[in-house]
Design a protein that fits this description.
The protein has about 280 residues and is α/β, with parallel strands linked by helices. The protein folds into 2 domains: about 150 residues, 3-Layer(aba) Sandwich (Rossmann fold), CATH 3.40.50.10170; about 120 residues, Hypothetical Protein Tm841, Chain: A,domain 3. The strands form 3 sheets. It has a 6-stranded mixed sheet with strand order 9-8-7-12-10-11, with helices on both faces. The chain has a 4-stranded parallel sheet with strand order 2-1-5-6, sandwiched between helices. Strands 3-4 form a two-stranded antiparallel sheet. About 0% of the residues have low confidence.
Length: about 280
């Protein structure tokens, strides 16, 4: 088959339906939880991952895929007759995944056109970029212009989240400027954002209800939005949050993704957020 294959990694948190719809190939990061290694963790759905987390006090551990894992996927695209590959990864400031993808692409230099894009984001912000790339690939665009459009979308992307605790981020070393929150939260709920590729503090709200409304207001007060996604780590009030978002953005255009093991390792259970791209 000719055309462009779109590749990403498992931190994108895209629902399986979106992955299938756009023919996206996902390279998994390695996740460990206690005695359960990467092979076991890859077999779990996001829901099953959170069920396991609820039964242990241990935090999951993550590591980037090997360059060989990406090389294998890129080589498969070549064997399938694809003209090129666009690979969109988690922020290089959060993981070595981008570097691994670049190394994998280099092994096939001159054999197939592989464009690796550092999303500078994670979770569904990264996922929205991947979906856009998938749509463009299906429309017959080539790898270079698709990668250029995805790269140009990075400054227009926003990702905000409400989390119950910063402990997972702190212990995982992904906290960035949000470190200033530690020790001063008390009963506050932290709002974080991804900015310049890392997790940063955004604000703090007194209640969970107020936090969710704050996220809705971010959408409401934004300029025109071209794409939007809701993300959550099995949040008990996700239906209410989705209904709130539906009042300010068309629900039929909204993608809802469950945060999986890679991002869930750092945000913890109950987190909820919104990702959107400004037009």
């Amino acid at each position: 088959m000719s055309g462009v294959r779109v590749v990403t990694d498992s931190s994108c948190d895209l629902p399986a339906s979106e992955i299938a719809r756009h023919g996206i190939v996902v390279v998994p990061l390695d996740v460990r939880l206690g005695d359960d290694g990467p092979d076991v963790m890859r077999s779990l759905s996001p829901e099953e991952f959170w069920e396991r987390c609820a039964k242990t006090t241990e935090l999951p551990e993550t590591s980037a895929p090997s360059p060989g894992a990406f090389q294998e996927v890129f080589a498969a695209a070549k064997s399938d007759g694809c003209d090129g590959v666009v690979c969109v990864t988690i922020s290089s400031a959060m993981s070595g995944t981008y570097q691994a993808a670049c190394a994998g692409a280099k092994e096939l230099e001159g054999e197939i056109d592989v464009r690796v894009v550092d999303s500078r984001f994670a979770s569904m912000a990264q996922g929205l970029m991947v979906v856009d790339a998938g749509r463009r690939a299906a429309a017959g665009e080539e790898a270079a212009p698709i990668a250029a459009v995805v790269t140009d979308s990075i400054p227009k992307m926003r990702l905000y989240g409400m989390i119950e605790t910063l402990e997972n981020l702190r212990r995982g070393g992904r906290i960035g400027g949000a470190q200033a929150f530690v020790g001063s939260l008390l009963s506050f709920k932290p709002i974080i954002e991804v900015r310049e590729g890392v997790v940063e503090k955004e604000s703090r709200q007194r209640t969970r209800t107020r936090s969710l409304q704050y996220l809705v207001d971010k959408v409401k007060n934004a300029s025109e939005i071209s794409q939007l996604a809701i993300l959550h780590a099995m949040a008990p009030d996700i239906d209410e949050f989705a209904a709130m978002i539906a009042e300010v953005y068309p629900p039929e255009k909204t993608i809802i993704g469950i945060i999986g093991p890679v991002i869930g390792t750092h945000c913890g259970p109950g987190a909820a957020g919104v990702a959107f791209q400004l037009a």
